[in-house]
# Entry
Amino acid sequence: MKDEPITLKDRLLSLIAKFDDGDSAAEELPDIVSLINTLSPLSPIPDPTNHLDEVAGSWTSLFASFGFGRAKGKMRHDDSTLGIQSFKAFPEIPIHVVDIMQEIGVTPNAYNNVIMIEPMDRSCRALIIVHGNYQGDAENAQRFHVVFHAAEIRGLDGVRDDALRLALDLPEDAPLKRDFKPAKFYSDVVYLDETTRINFGGMGGVYVLERRLEPALTI
# Structure
């Protein structure tokens, strides 16, 4: 008897948790990739653009891979830069990534990438919000066409803008929201249930996300 989707998903999430405690060459990665490919055709909601209420909300990224090579997986918590996380809207200033989320709305049709960050000295927390909007695809009910157009840095826990600029080594008069040339992508939601989503990105990325219980931060 073949494994049911819920059993496959439990195995996948267990391996992702183990992988996230290791490094990008972890031996779990090939099995994660295999389970993603096995689970995707079994989606309880195979046409997510026709069920936007099921897609909408706040999601935490559990796993990301930018190619299926052995060393291509990426852990959730990592050091990065403001520039990398903001489509280069902000300078290449080192930061630590605490969490990566995605928030999707129905009205308006927001599609925001939300990265919780800390300065390298861990003195405060903030969000990088990459603002985007989506449209469905008339011929593919899994596909979201997304346009990102602005990036914003927003302090958390009452951190003032001036203190945030100081902590991130930004100039005193630096704007904390910047528009950029629209960046167009598509993302296919190949698996969707009440708590889990798997996306295949148009640039080859593969993402596993879990629905957050907390309220959305940006929509």
In short: The domain at 5-211 is CATH 2.40.128.280 (Lipocalin). Residues 99 and 173 are 27 Å apart (CA to CA). The helical segments are 5-20, 29-39, 52-55, 82-85, 161-167.
